[in-house]
Amino acid sequence: MLTAIPFPAIDPVLIEIGPFAIRWYALAYIVGILFGWWYAKRLVSTPRLWGADGAPIRPVDLDDFVMWATIGIIVGGRLGYVLFYNFGAFLAAPLTIFEVWHGGMSFHGGFLGTVIAMVLFSWRRKIPFLSLIDVIAPSVTVGLCLGRIANFINGELWGRPADVPWAMVFPNADGQPRHPSQLYEAALEGIVLFLVLRLLTHRQLRLKQPGFVAAVFAIGYGLARIISEFFREPDIQLGYFSGGLTMGMLLSLPMILAGIGLLVYVRRRDARPA
To answer: Between the N and C ends of the chain, which has fewer C-beta atoms within 10 Å?
Structure first.
């Protein structure tokens, strides 16, 4: 019998008043979006990060963009989950697509939704797209961390069976001690990635090179997700693909390739004579 530590019994519902309830998962989205909004405004309001010409984005632009981003996250995240993870179930009952309170969001879908929102917003406001995505990329990492902690509180998206001292028995799983992979993802996708991007923006002043920070974010998230997937149990309706790959791994590979491509573009662009 593998040893395990008790799973902390935290009610997924933070506050409940009559029919009204606030869940930790919803709170993670709200706080993540508000923090990202605040942090992005801090980045564009710090002149030393941008050089003599200053930031090409105004704080008021970000005030307007937060609604675009919210729609991109929610719509993209939900459609991504439907298309990538559970298409058959939603095809059988299409109206359940709108039942977001039952869970079912995809980071990769939310990422694509936000990128589309940034493309449209930057075109409408005549804002440099690469500078906008450079500002947004480090601003979302805290939200990623909080989202994974909420997954842990909900006792969902648990890890593979494990014999490590910190393995847990999740109440909705099969009774086996498992990796708390949600916390691994919170650390890698959230804390570590935030610190790496903070170093790039505030120490190396990479916001002066449009696209650099966004490229590192795409590569860093893709790598963090793939590493975490080695400890995370794949979705039961999908299982493993050829070679032991999971859907999370497959969706992260294009992010890494796109990040590498953008990094090469930035390097070549900046190497050209002025």
So the answer is: C
